[in-house]
């Protein structure tokens, strides 16, 4: 009495076309692995174990990174919450690229006399623009009033100022307050010997 012949049931690998149990002897076992895991995992238990381990690693890595980022977020939130809850008012300070703190520009006109060489003197007027005065217009008026050259130039800090040729120090305040009533006299300063003094 012979055994009933088992129907032949050979699974052929779709990648290397060998019977699946011979994949490991094929040309490229690595290429077969995904197919094996999908279609014939029982033939390669080691492969399955390896794959499971990899997945576990992946998942735990993922969990770890999630854990890290969420704890970072928590730290940030905590910092924000504590700064928001602090009683000190938040100061609006802008930091310039050099790390200097940019102060809000005080609304004032600063007039400085600069002697360029022994004879030539320039009166520099800064800040009229802070009172809504158009500098090109002011420059023309100053030049006309004092019969001299006046021009809008960029100062050392890149802010525009008016350079008036000649020493007009002692007439200029009255002219400014008369011409531009929006500029109060007590907002006009002279720079004298490096010190800032109120002009009136
Ligand atoms: Zn194969």
Bound molecules: zinc ion
Q: Strands of the biggest beta sheet: in what spatial order?
A: 5-6-4-3-7-8
Distance between the termini: 130 Å
The H-and-E topology, N to C, reads as: HHEEEEHEEHEE
Q: Any overview of this molecule?
A:
- This protein is of the alpha+beta class.
- The chain folds into two domains: 20-83; 103-198, SUI1-like domain (Translation Initiation Factor Eif1, 2-Layer Sandwich).
- The chain contains four helices and eight strands; from the N terminus they run ααββββαββαββ.
- The protein has helices spanning 29-39, 45-85, 135-145, 169-179, and strands spanning 94-95, 101-102, 109-115, 121-126, 150-154, 160-165, 188-192, 195-198.
- The strands form two sheets. Strands 5-6-4-3-7-8 form a six-stranded mixed beta sheet, covered by helices on one side.
- A hairpin with a 5-residue loop joins strand 3 and strand 4 (121-126).
- The chain is rod-shaped and about 125 Å long.
- The structure holds zinc ion (ZN).
- Zinc ion (ZN) binds next to loops.
């Amino acid at each position: 009495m012979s055994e009933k012949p088992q129907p032949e049931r050979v699974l052929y690998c779709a990648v290397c076309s060998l019977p699946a149990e011979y994949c490991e002897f094929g040309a490229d076992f690595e290429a077969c692995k995904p197919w094996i895991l999908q279609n014939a995992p029982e033939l390669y238990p080691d492969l399955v174990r390896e794959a499971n381990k990899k997945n576990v690693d992946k998942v735990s890595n993922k969990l770890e990174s999630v854990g890290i980022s969420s704890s970072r977020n928590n730290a940030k939130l905590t910092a924000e919450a504590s700064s928001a809850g602090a009683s000190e008012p938040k100061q609006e300070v802008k930091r310039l690229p050099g790390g200097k703190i940019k102060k809000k520009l005080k609304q004032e006109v600063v007039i400085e006399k600069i002697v360029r060489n022994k004879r030539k003197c320039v009166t520099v007027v800064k800040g009229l623009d802070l009172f809504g005065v158009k500098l090109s217009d002011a420059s023309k008026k100053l030049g006309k009033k004092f019969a001299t050259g006046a021009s809008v130039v960029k100062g050392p800090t890149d802010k525009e100022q008016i350079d008036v040729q000649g020493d007009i120090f002692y007439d200029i305040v009255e002219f400014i307050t008369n011409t531009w009533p929006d500029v109060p006299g007590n907002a006009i300063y002279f720079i004298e010997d490096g010190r800032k003094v109120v002009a009136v």
